[in-house]
Amino acid sequence: MSAVEVSQCSRCRKPAIIFQEYSGQHYCSSCLIRSVRKRIGKELRKQLILPKSDKNELTTIMVAVSGGKDSAVLLETLHHFLKNRKDVKLIAGCVNEGIEGYRKPSMKCAEKLANSLDIEFRTLSYKSLGFDDMDNVVKIMPNISEKHEEAKGMSPCSFCGVFRRQGINKLASETQADYVALGHNLDDMAQTVLMNLQKGDLDRTLRLAPHSWSPIKGMAPRIVPIRWIPEQEVQAYAMSMDLPFHDDECPHSHQALRILHRDIVARMEDAVPGTRHGLVHSSDSVKEMYMKNKTPDEEEFTKVANNCKSCGQITSQEICKACIMKKWLIE
Ligand code: SF4
Ligand SMILES: [Zn+2]
Ligand SMILES: [Zn+2]
């Protein structure tokens, strides 16, 4: 596009940097920043339920950061909205997967951002949790799948996702977090909704964050304040705000199923703008309907309310996946 063809911002007529197909609006960087903040603020007010009665009660939010753009925007916007509240504390927690050349530079970005906002920064490695660096896990994966039928066809991300969840749970308990904030954007959420529907996995749909109105026993509720912001807008916001973030792909990202869903959601959105919002709204409606029809004495999400016989963490099985995988790694 040549300079004369640059579209104007629909709000202020300055040169636009982004076009929202689903709303028909063009945005310049300052109007985009305002709009993104407005949407995140609105969602945060819904999801973050703070105790009203006791003014001295401190609510701790553990913000899961990775050094990528999504969690950078999450941390910066949470800080923007909550910095003046004496009753809320933000802590940035980063799980180190042990991926050479990828995790270190991204952790540096996460730490830099946390420091610049004066937010405590904590890290935890897979090794310290009793697993192994992802680079080593990838090396021994062929051996594992030879020995264990269940592990056949698993991708590095299947292991990594389970380990990361443990890491986030550990960081949450170490920091005595009341909430865990996750940086899932609209594209991530829509892909997950589609994956859960495709698997016919209603339990997962019901357990999908935010957990503010549907807590899972034994777990700090997850909040996802940036869930209505499309990935492209998250990126544009992070760049307009000059936030430090790392944009490289993980060398083990062969999560074929996620890539397929990313592609499908993008094509559906192209054909019918607003599809991503629609998918996430449908998942919300299913959850709402379930919550409405639940009898008051019914346990919330009973299927996940077991404790692992080996480590005590919340699981839907007798032995949690993390413990099973831990065993595979040492056998
Ligand atoms: S792409 Fe997969 S292996 Fe890499 S960090 Fe993400 S989940 Fe882990
Ligand atoms: Zn503008
Ligand atoms: Zn366990």
Question: Any overview of this molecule?
Answer:
By secondary structure, the protein is an alpha/beta fold. It has one domain (39-49, 56-292): HUPs (Rossmann fold, 3-Layer(aba) Sandwich). The chain has helices at 29-47, 69-82, 103-116, 134-147, 156-174, 186-199, 202-207, 231-240, 256-271, 275-293, 321-330; strands at 18-20, 25-27, 59-64, 88-96, 120-125, 179-181, 222-223, 306-307, 314-315. Strands 5-4-3-6-7 form a five-stranded parallel sheet. It is globular.
Query: Distance between the terminal alpha carbons, to the nearest Å?
Result: 58 Å
Estimate percent helicity.
40-55%
Largest sheet: 5 strands, parallel
Order of strands, widest sheet: 5-4-3-6-7
Descriptive terms for the model:
331 residues; alpha/beta; Rossmann fold; five-stranded parallel beta sheet; two-stranded antiparallel sheet; 11 helices; 11% strand; binds iron/sulfur cluster; binds zinc ion
Helix/strand layout:
Elements lengths: L17 E3 L4 E3 L1 H19 L11 E6 L4 H14 L5 E9 L6 H14 L3 E6 L8 H14 L8 H19 L4 E3 L4 H14 L2 H6 L14 E2 L7 H10 L15 H16 L3 H19 L12 E2 L6 E2 L5 H10 L1
Parallel strand pairs: 3-4, 3-6, 4-5, 6-7
Antiparallel strand pairs: 1-2, 8-9
Helix pairs in contact: 1-8, 2-8, 6-9, 6-10
Q: Could you write a compact summary of the structure shown?
A:
The protein is built from eleven helices and nine strands. It is an alpha/beta fold and 331 residues long. β3, α2 and β4 (88-96) form a beta-alpha-beta unit.
